[in-house]
Amino acid sequence: MKTTPSTEERVWAVLSHLSALAFGMGILLPIVGWSEQRRKSKYAAFQCLQALGYQSLGYTVWLLTYLVVMLVSVGSMVAIMASTPEGASNMDVFTTIWMSVFLVMAFGSFGLYLLLPVIAAVACAFGKDFRYPIMGNRLARYLGYDSDTEQEWLIEEHEDRWVAAMGHFSVIILLWGILAPLTAWILQGKRGLFMRFQSIQTLIYQALATLLYVAGMALYTFGFFVFMALTGLGGGNALSSSTGMVGMGVLLISMLFAIGIVLLLPLFHIMGQWAGYRVLKGDDYRYPVVGRLVEKWLTKNQHHQQAD
Predict the structure, then answer these.
(1) What is this structure's pTM?
(2) I need a labelling partner for 22 at 20 to 30 A (CA). Which of 52, 138, 173, 174 fits?
(3) What percent of the chain has pLDDT over 90?
(4) Residues 6+ apart with CB under 8 A from 157
């Protein structure tokens, strides 16, 4: 930066980075900051977009790291117990060691995820041009932030594509991820068809994924309450009765459907990540069915507006 950022610029940058501490709920703040500062401050706009990317991509990386740690820990424990003759007798020892290693690595990675935005906020509070590791410099080049030309603002098309892509990526943030496309649509949807279309289709897609998760939980809850209502607290005698068998059957069926629904969620997440990647690569990505319906709806509305 050639000039020291103003207080307003630094405040937006600090708030955008610190919003990562809100565990998903804060993902709307960087979009609000970018919308407010995109044609006022190149510095603040870049920091807000960088914070948005960290919350979307960073959360994805953290979650994948968490899953890898869990799988490696479980696999290591099983392998050690299988290869050790006295493994079965030392089950408690192995379990204690595994839990300790798992907790240290899981909480350590989570702590690192929360530490970086705090460091970013402190740096921006002092007017520093903070860059997240790996992502920061690449995003700066993508947005034209470090351009040697006399470019006053960031590259508009790349700004829009970055915001739209982060909306797609945020599908992995259960419930709160929907705030990203919703905020982009409300604040920037009128500015262009690309942002409007991508935000609306992403919003609908994430709403469907959320409803799918809620449906799975509702099915399981329904089966559990039916089981409890039919068996009560009668113990084994109640389970062996005809009503108890019906309750057990309803519970098992609801659990199977719930598990099947929940197992579909990773497919929604994978497609969302693919959509974000395609948008960043310059494609006007459309979700199957949802994308076509949204496109037809927008085209119809546009024709009505022109007719009026």
Answers:
(1) 0.85
(2) 138
(3) 53
(4) none
